[in-house]
């Protein structure tokens, strides 16, 4: 029994060592998810979230014109959604949850 506990303890230590050396943020890493859809009525619906199931409520979202300038700025609502009037001409929509968590969807990818 003592030998089995020693092997179990050694195995646990071996498996835990890489976790101890990993960057602290890696344990809580999540990937942003962001999609936009043309509602067919002159408006666009965007939905967002994170791969770990976290809400995107309150996260900044911007509609950008062809020149990259901000046409409209808001935040994702309580349902992690954002609806806006489709602007004339070329545009894109940026979900901005901070560095490394930004996604831009060009108008050509919005159906």
UniProtKB/TrEMBL annotation:
Keyword tags: Signal
The keyword Signal belongs to this UniProt entry's keyword annotation: yes
Endpoints of the signal sequence: 1-29
Gene3D superfamilies: Immunoglobulins (2.60.40.10)
Protein name (Swiss-Prot/TrEMBL): Carboxypeptidase regulatory-like domain-containing protein
Organism: Roseospira marina
Source organism phylogeny: Bacteria, Pseudomonadati, Pseudomonadota, Alphaproteobacteria, Rhodospirillales
């Amino acid at each position: 029994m003592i030998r089995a506990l020693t092997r179990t303890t050694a195995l646990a230590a071996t498996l835990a060592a890489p976790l101890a050396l990993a960057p602290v943020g890696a344990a809580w890493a999540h990937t942003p998810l962001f999609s936009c859809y043309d509602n067919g009525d002159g408006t666009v619906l965007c939905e967002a979230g994170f791969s770990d199931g976290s809400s995107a409520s309150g996260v900044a979202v911007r509609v950008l014109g062809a020149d990259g300038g901000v046409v409209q700025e808001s935040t994702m609502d309580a349902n992690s959604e954002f609806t806006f009037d489709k602007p004339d001409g070329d545009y894109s929509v940026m979900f901005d949850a901070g560095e490394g968590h930004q996604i831009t969807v060009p108008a050509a990818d919005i159906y």
